[in-house]
Each structure stands twice: as C-alpha cells, then as structure tokens.
Amino acid sequence: MSVCDPVTGMHSIFTHVLPKHIFAESPTCKFDDKWNEEQIVDLKSKLHEHRETIAAVIVEPIVQGAGGMKFYSPAYLQRLRELCDETSTLLIFDEIATGFGRTGKFFAMEHADVVPDILCLGKALTGGYMTLSVVLCTDAVAETISSGEPPQLMHGPTFMANPLACEVAQASIKLLLASDWQRRVQCIEHILKEMFLPVKDFSNVADVRVLGAIGVIEMQSPVDVADFQRKCVERGIWVRPFGKLVYLMPPYIIGESDLRCLTETTVSVLGLE
Q1: CA atoms of 27 and 41, how far apart (whole Å)
Q2: What is the CATH number of the domain that holds 235?
Q3: Which of 1, 116, 202, 250 has its CA 20 to 30 A from that of 97?
Q4: Helix, strand, or coil here: 134?
C-alpha cells in the first residue's frame, strides 16, 4: 500500500520501508499494587500472535513519561522480561527520563531487578548541559550487530562520540556518584509527598503520584496552560503542565526552602489550598 500526496501527487515511499508498530495496552497497575496477571494479557497475546514479526518491545520502565506520567508495578517488568524470553523478543528500556537516580534507584529497572537487551540513556547523562545519548546492549546483541560482511552498523552519525559532550557526561556522572544523591532524592520525595498528597481528596483532582524526585498532580480536566504559566511566572516559578497533568521533576541540588516554595506555589496556582 502507498499513500498519494494530494499536493504533489507523489506516492510516499515511507509506507514501504517503515515497520508497522504494534501498540499494547498501557499497564494500569500502580507502583505498589499487588500483581494481577490480567494487567499483561493484552501485551502477552500480541507478543505470541506476532512473535515471527516483532523485533523488540520498547517501554519506559516504571514511569511512563509522555504516556501520562504514570507509575506502574515492577512486577509488570518482571513478567515482560519473561515473555520476551519466551518469544525470543528483544527488550528495550527507554531510561532517558528515569535514569541516573530520578526514581530513587540509579536506573528505574532496578526496582524490578530486570536487565533489558538494549538500554537507551540521555538527558541526565550530561546533566542537561549538552546533547548526548547512548545505547547500551548485551554482548549477544553487540556481537550480532557487528557480525556479517560488511558489519551492519559500519557507519555512525557525524557527531558520534562527540569528545566535548562525552567529557561533559563523564564529569556529570562523576559528580553524581560522588554526591549523596540517594539522600537528596529521598528528601525531595518526602517533601513532594508532604505537599502534594493532601490535595488528592479535592474533587477536581483525579490522582496524585510521587516516586523519587517526581511529583505529579493529575486534574480531572485539562489545565489552562497559558493561564497557569502566567500565574506561576508572576509568583516566581516555572512549571510546564501538559493535558491534565502538572508535574515536578526538580534538580537534586534544590534546597528545602526552594522546593517548598515550588510545591506551595504550584498547589496555590491550581487553587488547591
């Protein structure tokens, strides 16, 4: 099948070369929920039905970011790892938002004690100072990619292994590892819970979620972003909501007074006092 562009009359080649993506239902189990096998039935059936054509399963472990800032059970990842092994499917974790301590563990996958076949990292890799991402993989994946004549990945991006970005990443990681980041994340989590959990019972609040240095207030209705941000700026903070979600992911170096100001102002602007 091809698609005809109504303006140029040309057929798109992308329908011929791009793989078909299969989407499974998002996990609805909360982080602390007792495991229920029903949570993964849809994904399990799709894996078995398409096992001959699915190359890999890609997930954000523990925290679905753009998917709704949802926190789900580590047991889901454990079962997913088992299913991928059963069907000889690669498992890819996207820890670009969750890596380097954000959820309370250095990597979110540690909550489930699960290791993927491929791991994608970025953002906090350089502390946000420069653009850099990295893909880690198991020996089996690396050896498969590198075998053959010619090797499958014999060419890399123009800025691959950018020396300056790599140096920044090394410095950032050394600073993080040398710091008491676990205690700092725990302190942030404590204050986020103290300030956010009490608003959970408001009629216009659908849910409140806190994990590590991530705090989320989910409203019943979409947030008026322009009005919300104007009020935030007037009070000296900057918060970017999307849809029904207002979330905070503060830096680990934030002081208690600044964090309390940030959370109190967020709650106040939302009218949840």
Answers
A1: 10
A2: 3.90.1150.10
A3: 202
A4: strand
| Spatial separation of the C-alpha atoms in residues 238 and 232, rounded to whole Å | 6
* Strands (E) located in the chain: 56-59, 63-64, 70-71, 90-94, 118-121, 134-137, 205-211, 214-219, 245-248
Contacts 24+ apart (CB under 8 A), 224-232: 228/269, 228/270, 231/269, 232/265, 232/266, 232/269
- Residue 128 DSSP label: T
Structural domain that includes position 117: 14-177
Task: Starting at the earlier edge strand, list the strands of the sheet with 118-121.
Answer: 56-59, 90-94, 118-121, 134-137
Residue pointed to by tokens 């789900």: 72
Residues 185 and 138 occupy one common structural domain: no
User: Is the full-model pTM beyond 0.85?
Assistant: yes
CA distances from 117 to 36, 110, 171, 267 (A): 25, 14, 27, 41
Name the burial class of residue 261, with classes exposed (0-12), middle (13-18) and buried (19+) by CB atoms within 10 angstroms of its CB: middle
Which of 266, 210, 259 shows the shortest CA–CA distance to 241?
266
- The torsion region of residue 99 among left (phi > 0), alpha (psi -120 to 50) and beta comes to beta
Task: Based on the fold, state whether residues 103 and 161 are members of the same structural domain.
Answer: yes
**pLDDT tens readout for residues 184-207:** 999 999 999 999 999 999 999 999
What span, in angstroms and rounded, lies between the C-alpha atoms of 185 and 250? 10
Compute, in degrees rounded to 10, the torsion defined by CA atoms 126, 130, 136, 141: 180
Asked whether the beta carbons of 31 and 39 are under 8 A apart, the reply is no
Whether residue 64 sits in one domain with residue 130? yes
**Each residue of 122-180: pLDDT tens digit?**
999 999 999 999 999 999 998 888 887 776 666 677 778 889 999 999 999 999 999 99
Residue 8 domain-assigned (yes or no): no
Distance of CA 25 to the CA centre of its chain: 17
